[in-house]
Model the fold of this input.
Amino acid sequence: MIVASEFAPRSLEEIKELLAGGTLTVYSVARPVSADHAVDRSGKLAVFTFAAPAFGTPSEDGSEVPSFTAAVSATDVGTPGFARAVTADGKTVADFSVGPGDREIKLAEVSCSAGAPVKIVKFKFNPEGGWPERADYYDAHPRPGYSLPKVR
Done:
């Protein structure tokens, strides 16, 4: 999870509360360097609307249980790469990695097709913000506003 600078001082529980009534938009692969940057090279694949409250009790495996207002169908064709969560009044809160494997958001399908259902099967928060399956690459490069991470 990469949190927008406006919400960076907030706790994880506060961020979850901010998402009530907001949206989670799934985009194709070109994730911006931070949640403070506009999405300009990615296609919008699906939009989920969070219920209030946005999250229930975490499951036994540590993943979260998001609550949405309705089932969602894809609006375009593509491979999901990231999702952006915004508040009900449109302020960007955070970006999340999306896709197969050890990502923050895992979908039922590997890709999206226009009109086909899109279902989130796993949602977990990674406060460090990296790409879990490529920490050796992603976490080895500096991000604007953050000190250079240590690579093990």
User: Anything to note?
Assistant: Strands lie at 2-3, 23-28, 44-55, 66-68, 72-73, 80-86, 92-97, 105-107, 117-118, 120-123. The chain has two helices and ten strands.
